[in-house]
Amino acid sequence: MAGDPLPKRATYADVLAAPAHMRAEVLDGELHLMPRPRRAHLRSATGIGAFLFGAFQVGAGGPGGWTIIAEPELHLGPEPDILVPDLGGWRAGRLIDREDEDEAYITVVPDWVCEVLSPGTLRVDRMKKMPIYARERVGHVWLVDPRERTVEVFRHGGSGYVLVGTYGGDDGLVAEPFEAASIPPAFLWGTQSPPAAP
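^ that's the sequence the OP posted. Answer follows.
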């Protein structure tokens, strides 16, 4: 209706005021509160992060070349969108920590992010966060669905994302930008054999 004031844009203060049991993000000026993830989500995020940290973290002894961080708080854009992907990665030398910087957030655009999909976040991850990652030219985005046991790999193609491939099942994952190693399915899905009956 004419004369209605524009809705107030959410800010970092709204994120800081969010309940501790919720994950808060600001996407296109709107505050989004999501409950903490469930176990399948956590197993996939933890497993992928552990594998990539061990193989690709600078100085970890594997192929190296990356800084991998779990749940980095990203402030991207001039009126910053505030996003918390499950995992973020920066190529070596792009994310340099200085002793005089101790913010709880990162303003350097990552080279790769991973979003683990769950029923409560699926639409937000695809419809709200992907366009922001595209705008900021994040090089690669992985969308991991532990329920369907699939990983969609997207590469920024200059004008937006191109689907490189969809992977899944019980095979190891060899995918951009981490082609130098195969991620075993146990790290992707957190599956274990049930204990033997006594």
